[in-house]
Amino acid sequence: MFSVFVFGVLPESSGKTTVCTAIVRGLSLRGWNVGVFKPRSGHSYWYHHDIYAKCSAEGRLYSWDILRLSQAKGGRPLPLEVLNPVDALFSPLDRLSLDESSVEVRLSNPFFELVVERYTILDGRVKSVLCVNGVNFESDSLLFKNWAYVKRLMDNADKVIIAESLEEWNDVYSNYAPTAIRSCYKKVCSEHEVVVVEGFNDAVCPDPALRFNLVLGVAPGAVFCYRGDRFRKAVEVVAGAVRDPRSLEARNVLEFLKPERAVRLPALTSRETSDYKLLARKLGEVVEVVEGEAAKWRENEEGGWRPATEGG
Q: What is the DSSP letter of 93?
């Protein structure tokens, strides 16, 4: 199994999903059995209303990014919740329902915009753990008001946890995210010869147990290519003994790394980004880089399989 991790050089709008979908469709068209994975994601009721509306209609919770990656892959993919084991719904504050002092307090704490977060764990079967913001639940403090949708998610979950503070939310993430991400990643890796992993914003380590052969940093106009082992070593060195590597951002690590190569990206129209076959052709140089590395790895390993995670 050959793995590719794609992260954003910038905190937002780097173009990760566009690059990932091009790689996935491009490799699929060239005969590779490609899997997709989005370890962690979040979307907003207000800014990403299309995917919220789709999830609400289905009684599910997943990201727009994994939906696009799954569509680019084609065929019969694993459940989106397995391909995207951690996903959260957020909402801006309702400034017409809150007084000015309450808005100021809540804006300083990201917990107050959380609605609900899902963790999917594979342990013989697919299990769903739901973390609900108990402070916001059924309140009028958010623009989001569809609490019937959250209750539906709660009814379908195997376990529901009510978090009352940022600290409690962080504890839930620490307790459930590693198991969710590792168990689902192992499943995806077991069924594909190449797996494309899209990161969360500019975070450079979705989980310290995951291994990648090739790492791509995406910025407007460019993709920077790194060897997986060297990138991992840089993350470990920067994190040291006192920092959680999952907290590291691109700016923390890239000053210590020199890319193996860089590929220029063209500006794209909305038609080109929505037509995955055309997108794969427009970003053909990136696809060729990934395929070349995957082919070399396959030749070196003589078709062998290596664990997707430590102890995996």
A: B
The continuous run of DSSP H or E covering 54 comes out as: helix 49-58
| Nearest C-alpha neighbor of 295 from the set 144, 161, 193 | 193
Give the angle 69-245-189 at the CA atoms, nearest 5°. 35
Where are any strands of DSSP class E within 220-276?
A: 222-227, 261-264
Check residue 301 and give its pLDDT: 77
Confidence of residue 302 (pLDDT cuts 50, 70, 90): low
Which stretches does DSSP call E strand in the chain? 2-8, 34-37, 40-44, 86-90, 114-122, 126-133, 159-163, 194-198, 214-219, 222-227, 261-264
For 123, phi and psi rounded to 5 degrees?
A: -140, 70
Residue of 12, 73, 70 lying closest to 43 (CA atoms): 12
Name the residue ranges covered by the structural domains of the chain: 1-33+192-312, 40-190
**How far apart are the C-alpha atoms of 5 and 73, rounded to whole Å?**
16
First to last CA, the chain: 13
Q: Are strands 86-90 and 114-122 parallel, antiparallel or unpaired?
A: antiparallel
Sheet containing 194-198: give its strands across: 34-37, 194-198, 2-8, 214-219, 222-227, 261-264
Side by side, which strands form the sheet with 40-44? 40-44, 86-90, 114-122, 126-133, 159-163
Res 205 pLDDT > 60: yes
Mean of per-residue pLDDT scores for the chain: 94
Find how far residue 153's CA is from the centre of its chain. 21
Question: What's the pTM?
Answer: 0.93
At 62, the amino acid letter reads Y
Give every CB contact of residue 181 below 8 A, 6+ residues apart in sequence.
Answer: 39, 40, 85, 86, 206, 207, 210
- The rounded distance, in Å, linking the Cα atoms of 156 and 292 is 43
